[in-house]
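Quick one, probably user error.
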């Protein structure tokens, strides 16, 4: 069986909302790649850092097509305290949010709160594969 493997890394800023549009673009890319491969492609696996937590819009968009390898019938959601990303608090000096391109805006210190969450995924065509057991996160 021929498999198309796609790797991705969606935009980092969850508050900006880019991930949903990028997830839609990703589905279009996958469809285009599969179409160009024709009958040579019988299944697709999508792996990557979505920068979106389980249940976020981008994750839900991709689950309309793919199955999350960490989930299965007996595990409908990630267990408490599961995470694939551990990020400490970050301090950075930049123009205020929404004024990045305003030359008159003065840079200031910002704090991005650290987090522990699932943002990395392996998604697959559920009709082409049968997962023996879920991926442990």
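Nope, works fine. Designed sequence:
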């Amino acid at each position: 069986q021929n498999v198309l493997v796609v790797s991705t890394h969606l935009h980092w800023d969850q508050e900006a909302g880019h991930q949903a549009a990028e997830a839609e673009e990703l589905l279009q890319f996958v469809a285009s790649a599969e179409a160009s491969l024709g009958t040579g492609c019988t299944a697709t696996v999508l792996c990557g850092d979505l920068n979106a937590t389980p249940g976020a819009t981008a994750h839900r968009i991709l689950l309309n097509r793919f199955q999350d390898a960490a989930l299965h019938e007996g595990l409908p959601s990630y267990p408490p305290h599961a995470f694939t990303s551990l990020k400490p608090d970050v301090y950075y000096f930049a123009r205020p949010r929404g004024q990045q391109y305003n030359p008159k805006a003065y840079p200031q210190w910002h704090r991005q709160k650290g987090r522990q969450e699932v943002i990395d995924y392996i998604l697959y065509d559920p009709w082409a594969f049968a997962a023996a057991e879920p991926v442990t996160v």
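Helices lie at 18-37, 57-63.
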